[in-house]
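For the sake of transparency, this paper describes our internal protein records without simplification. The remainder of this section carries one protein's record, kept here as part of the documentation:
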Amino acid sequence: MKRFAILTSLILIVTATLAAQAPKGWKVRADRSTSASDPDAAGAIKFVTAGSGFHATTPQAAVFWSPANTITGNYSLKGTFKLLKPSGHTNYYGLVFGGSDLEGASQNYLYFLVAQDGSWLVKRRNGDATEDVVRKTPSDAVKKPDASGQSTNALEVRVQADKVEFAVNGTVVGNVPKAQAAKTDGLYGIRSNHLLDIEVDGLSATKR
């Protein structure tokens, strides 16, 4: 019983710490690595406002969202992501959409992400499990880090009546039947895998 009380206290402390580091109205959920060969870094996740957007530093992977940000039906979700420095290996970052229960055990969302190696992918999170919607795919549309180690990529999800399109820097890189994407209504936000430092601007969702 005593161990349970200590564990509960630690969880509350971690949750409070994460909440304190998020802008007002935003929430953070860490997604900690369970791989001994690809461990998280030390330090706390940081998510703060930066100009008209946000700055996320993620020693551990995380999802960021505001409960006020929901959209349904046919819509376009956009966000421009600037990688401030390359990771030691390929790690992905990008848009979350169709989200529900993001604070609970039944968390569910889709995510459209790019990486510094010039690839993109789409996955679905369902509780602790993940599944590929579109496997890792290389594309010339995804900008790789330049000599300064930085890159900027504008991502867009276009939910239509019969399909969902994925665009990078204005170029459609792929699509899936809407039935394959399954649930696209719900919360939207940002995901950053571990060992990343990114800025996000222009996050918005509009009806089509």
Observations:
- The chain is about 10% helix and 55% strand.
- Residues 2-207 form a domain with the Jelly Rolls fold (CATH 2.60.120.560).
- The chain has one domain: 2-207.
- The first strand starts at residue 27 and ends at 31.
